[in-house]
Design brief:
The complex is a heterodimer of chains A (88) and B (507).
Chain A: H1 2-26, H2 37-65, H3 71-75
Helix pairs in contact in A: 1-2
Chain B: H1 4-29, H2 34-39, H3 46-57, H4 65-84, H5 87-106, H6 111-119, H7 122-154, H8 161-211, H9 215-225, H10 241-258, H11 260-269, H12 273-304, H13 316-325, H14 330-371, H15 378-401, H16 405-412, H17 414-417, H18 421-430, H19 436-455, H20 459-462, H21 465-481, H22 487-504
The chains are: A mainly alpha (88), B mainly alpha (507).
């Protein structure tokens, strides 16, 4: 259990860190130059596309590393008013 | 384009269906509490959660200012929006999922409830209630106004703007107080599909009739004739460096997380953590679908009807239908205009009802119950909650009929105004050393800084960035020089968070 817990914490740090890095790269001042259409498109591909990839890759990895308790397990301790939530 | 009878029929059928649905939900949910009325108390399934979220985000902006924005801002404007969408899963994972977990233990109703739970400060609750309220009410009023505009445009000016606004405003009033947030969420699910279909059908039809369906021909035409559309800062210099940084941040933090109607969706609605995960997974994709559809319309418009300026660019959808599609196929153009009306109504009402409900919850829960300590029976409480929504619905209707100049300003910086409250939320969730005085000063000074940013002409491009930075700095400094929060309060708050984490996660 402790090993599992550590692996998702590491993923969280990489996820957040890489997102910040690529967000900063997208926002580098002066790049691309104003009025330069090809550069603007290349800049978008090199920074925005990785942002999407990192966002989804991190999410999928974290979801695998951090599994959820089953509905029946968690409902034992909740106070939902909906009937369907209390079937377990 | 559409006859008066057709336009009114579209409005009446749509509003009648909404009201019938509201009454149906009321019959099913009539015995629930005020908390359930305003937040559905963690019972919304993932599909409805995703759809009500996207519907709450996309106001009538999508049908008016949106295509005009891309027309004027160009592809750089679109890229700046593509840069904030992937931030949603990260922000939700680290912030809003924790809010959701806390809510399962602490039963919050309004956004300010969480802050008050952590900082135990009525002053902070009052400040937050004022901020959240002041961004919600004008939003609803502006949307009513846009619905009136849609009817006026679709009927070629034959329908009076005022009568359409009154009809929509009163219709919404009959709808919201009955079913509460659950009926709004379910209706938004249906409405969301209507507006997404409408958006793409209009854009692709204009491309089909204008360029025989050839996207490459359209791209080459814009590349040759309006090349600045593809570069920063865009044809009308909408996206200088400041806006490329400030606007997406305002969208990521203010618009998709901190505006009160989306805050309660991401934090209080979801049925379980599985629903939260689906929200993180699908929300950027849904936003991509909607924004790309809107961008396609703006792009086709600059390719086919270049040279528009200012407010005219906001009417590119009806212009494309009338000038490009109608000469080729009148009947199809009429159907598209009907879709435009329904789409604008669907979108407008989703966002307006969401804002009215959250504004009602602020009056009913934050002000009357928590600040003025009103003690009444649950039945009277829910009655007050419904009446608060009715009163605010009427107030927005009056505001929509006589919009003061301030209303547009408020809407423009609504997403910026809530940004300084984000660092306070992060500190509440992660930093035990954060104190109530620091949270109060940071929220207040941050909001004032945003107002001053606009006052001195920096707001349109930097949005709430300076206010948020100031708020972060003040929160940190003042927390260190003020007395730490009582350990018992911290144990209670963070203990609830730990308990929820262990209940919902296996590790």
């Amino acid at each position: 259990m402790p090993k599992k817990s550590k692996s998702y914490k590491t993923t969280e740090k990489w996820w957040l860190g890489l997102t910040i890095v690529f967000y900063l790269l997208y926002n580098l001042p002066g790049i691309p130059e104003y009025g330069d259409a090809p550069s603007a498109l290349i800049h978008g591909v090199l920074t925005i596309l990785p942002l999407w990839v990192i966002s989804y890759a991190g999410l999928i990895i974290l979801n695998r590393q951090r599994s959820l308790r089953t509905k029946c397990d968690s409902n034992k301790t909740l106070n939902y008013s909906d009937k369907e939530d209390t079937q377990c | 384009m559409l006859s008066v009878t057709t336009t009114w029929s579209l409005y009446i059928i749509y509003m009648a269906a909404l009201i019938a649905f509201g009454v149906y939900t009321w019959q099913r949910e009539r015995n629930n509490s005020a908390r359930h009325f305003f937040t559905a108390g963690n019972t919304i399934n993932w599909f409805v959660l995703c759809m009500t979220y996207i519907a709450a985000l996309m106001s009538t902006w999508v049908f008016f200012s949106g295509p005009g924005g891309y027309y004027r801002g160009g592809f750089g404007y679109y890229m700046s929006e593509l840069s904030y969408m992937p931030l949603f899963p990260i922000l939700t994972y680290f912030v809003m999922n924790k809010v959701w977990l806390l809510n399962t233990q602490r039963n919050y109703t309004t956004p300010a409830d969480l802050y008050d739970d952590r900082f135990r400060s009525p002053v902070l609750r009052l400040i937050l209630a004022l901020v959240f309220f002041s961004v919600s009410l004008p939003y609803a009023a502006a949307i009513y106004n846009a619905c009136g505009k849609a009817a006026e445009i679709a009927s070629g000016g034959q329908i009076n703007h005022t009568s359409a606004v009154i009809f929509v405003g009163l219709g919404a009033l009959l709808f919201i107080p009955f079913g509460g947030v659950k009926s709004v969420a379910w209706a938004a699910t249906v409405q969301g599909w209507i507006f997404m279909v409408a958006l793409w059908v209009i854009g692709l039809s204009a491309l089909n009739y204008g360029f025989a369906g050839s996207l490459s021909s359209a791209v080459l035409s814009v590349w040759d004739h309006s090349n600045s559309w593809f570069s920063y800062p865009g044809p009308e210099k909408w996206v200088p460096y400041s806006a490329r940084l400030g606007y997406p941040l305002a969208c990521a933090i203010g618009w998709t997380i901190m505006l009160p109607d989306v805050f309660i969706r991401a934090g209080y609605f979801g049925k379980d953590l599985g629903a939260q995960r689906k929200l993180m997974l699908f929300q950027p994709i849904l936003q991509f679908v909607v924004w790309t559809g809107t961008m396609v319309i703006g792009f086709v418009a600059i390719a086919l009807i270049p040279g528009l300026k200012g407010g005219d660019t906001e009417l590119v959808i009806p212009m494309l239908i009338e000038k490009i599609i109608s000469p080729n196929n009148v009947s199809f153009a009429a159907i598209l205009m009907g879709l435009f009306v329904w789409g604008a109504l669907a979108k407008g009402l989703s966002a307006a009802t969401s804002h009215l409900l959250v504004a009602g919850s602020i009056i009913s829960e934050d002000v009357l119950t928590k600040l003025l300590k009103l003690h009444v029976s649950p039945k009277v409480h829910i009655f007050i909650a419904r009446m608060a929504v009715v009163a605010l619905g009427l107030a927005s209707l009056v505001l929509a009929l006589n919009p003061p100049e301030l209303i547009w300003t408020l809407i423009m910086f609504a997403i910026a105004l809530v940004m300084p409250i984000f660092p306070v939320l992060v500190a509440a969730l992660y930093w035990k050393r954060a104190t109530a005085p620091a949270a109060i000063v940071a929220s207040l000074a941050g909001v004032v800084a945003v107002i001053l940013t606009y006052q001195y002409g920096y707001g349109d491009s930097w949005y709430g960035l300076f206010g948020m930075l100031l708020s972060t700095a003040l929160l940190t400094i003042i927390s260190y020089v003020t007395k730490p929060t009582d350990q018992q309060i911290l144990d209670e708050f963070y203990g609830a968070l730990d308990k929820a984490e262990s209940e919902y996660y296996t590790n």
